[in-house]
Amino acid sequence: MLSKGSIIFIVIFISLHFSFYSYGYGVERKKFDSLYTVGISKIRIDIRISDSCINKLNKIETLSFTQKAKLNYLKSKVHAQKVKNQPKGFVVQDDMVDPDSLLATGISYIEHGYASKGLEIIYNYIETNRNSIKDTLLDYLNIKIAEGLRMNLEYKKAVYILEEVLQSPKINSFNKSYAYNRLAAIYDVTPELSFQQRVDSVKKYSDLSISISKPHNFLYLLGLSQSELGSLYRLSSMNLDLSELYCTKAIQNFIEIKAYRNAMNTSIILSDIYIRRGELQKSRIPLYKVLDYLNVIGNEDMFMRVYLQLAKSHYLLKDYHNAYEFLSVGRLLEKLLFEFAMDEKISEMSAKYNLALKESEISKRENKIKLQRKDIRYLAAVLMITLTTLIISILYFSIKRKSLKQQHDLEILEKKNLQILFKAKNKELVQSLAHSIDKNNVLKTLKKEIAAGKSSNELTYIINSNIDTSHNWREILLNFQNLYPDFFSKLSVQHPNLTQNEIKLCALLILKLSTNEISEVLSVSSSAISKSRQRLRKRLNLDKEADLHTYLQKFI
Which long-range contacts link 515-524 to residues 24+ away (Cβ below 8 Å)? Predict the structure, then answer.
């Protein structure tokens, strides 16, 4: 038994101890608040001071959870400002980046909730490496694409891609288990399904994933499916004990493989399970356990959710001060994430605008080159047409010249042939006239001899009847018309008053017959023919010096 004095001493000692502790804690709290306030206020003025404050705060050993939350916010705020202060306009080109590290960045974007940015990188990677990418990696990337589409609420597309992956003949066990797990996650949030359909689908595909992951010890996939089932049983309030079991196992698996983001996410579910069961004190424990595993930089979204869940737990415990502190930090991180998202959006829009300008410039240059090429093609076409026309013209004129020469040669040949024919016909006509003259001479001689022998009148009549000048003349006229078809018509037009005998005389003159030969043809005397020539000259209005034959030649 302690004496009364001893008891009083112990009470005094404990009181003094707590007084000194409270005083020390109060001093540490004032120091924290001072450094935190300076760190926040100097971020935009001199970020080096903020960094110094963070270093000093990290050295304080006795920080409460709310103080750690504020310190994490300060770190995030400083980091965000440093990102803003980085020089703009430097764009990393594809050939400056290792494709594998770029791919890892795309996957990380999706895992951190920036689905659109991650999808763009993965799509480009697949398109660039389509011919060399391995089937296993392609299946894995398609699963990540489906996860990105799930975040963008494109559930049907995501389900279609996962079903295609599951039908792949070369799919490995990891990808198969992963695809089942992501199908469970999609069906858990698909609004078109009824509640029971969602429950059945999530349970079916989670169990399929677990059945593959367990024997292969795929702890990450096992944790994902356990977390999915824990969330399912929590929301449906089907079995909160089973939900707690699944979440506890999931957190253990995630921590073992250092998948701390997943552990934090599942700890939020486990905290909510305790709240639903009314175990408010326990609802904070899983959250506090995971806070120190992960750096807040790059994981602000997850810390924000944990702090908001802690604010809820403390509020239900009526610990309003801590609830307010966690809620404040949670909302500040939420605001920071919103600002970051807006900056990213503005940066993306600026990049798209700059890209559009570059594309416009490239398009203008390409159009200019196209126009130049078009002009060159046009000039080439004009030159080709001109050259072709020139060649055709040369060929045409060459052919035409040859044709004209051939035509000229042909005309000369025809002329020669006509001359030959003319001479032949003329000769034939002259021979016909000569024959007629000879015949008439013979008959005249016979007539004279009979007359000298005092033959009878009847015999003389018969002989006279055989001297057929008219018949001979018709034959001669027909041959003359064949030889000179236009002579008579032209002569008649020029001298319409000529008699038939004068026309005959003109024809015989054209044949260059002498006066005596003409007299023999016409059976008249030479003197008569001479007189007829003189009369014809007058009819034709020719001078004495003019050559009658030459004049008549123009009517041929």
Answer: 517/433, 517/437, 520/437, 520/440, 520/441, 521/433, 521/436, 521/437, 521/472, 521/473, 521/476, 522/469, 522/473, 523/440, 523/467, 523/469
Class of domain 468-553: mainly alpha
Can you tell me the distance from the alpha carbon of 186 to that of 45, in angstroms, rounded to the nearest whole number? Answer: 46
Domains of the chain, residue spans: 96-338, 468-553
Q: What is the pTM of this model?
A: 0.56
Q: Are 270 and 284 in contact (CB under 8 A)?
A: no
| H helix runs in 60-154, sequence order | 65-85, 99-111, 115-128, 135-151
CA distance 392 to 386: 10
Q: Which tens digits make up the pLDDT trace of 439-484?
A: 665 566 666 667 666 566 655 655 655 555 555 666 777 777 787 8
Q: Which CATH number fits domain 96-338: 1.10.8.60, 1.25.40.10, 3.30.56.10, 1.10.240.10?
A: 1.25.40.10
Residue whose tokens read 């004190």: 281
Residue closest to 68 by CA, chosen among 339, 283, 310: 310
Q: How many Å apart are CA 193 and CA 176, to the nearest integer?
A: 24
* N-term to C-term CA, the chain: 179
Positive or negative CA dihedral for 304, 309, 311, 314? negative
Q: How far apart are CA 294 and CA 283, in angstroms?
A: 20
In 3D, which of 171, 168, 213, 172 has the Cα closest to residue 184? 213
Rg (CA), the chain: 65
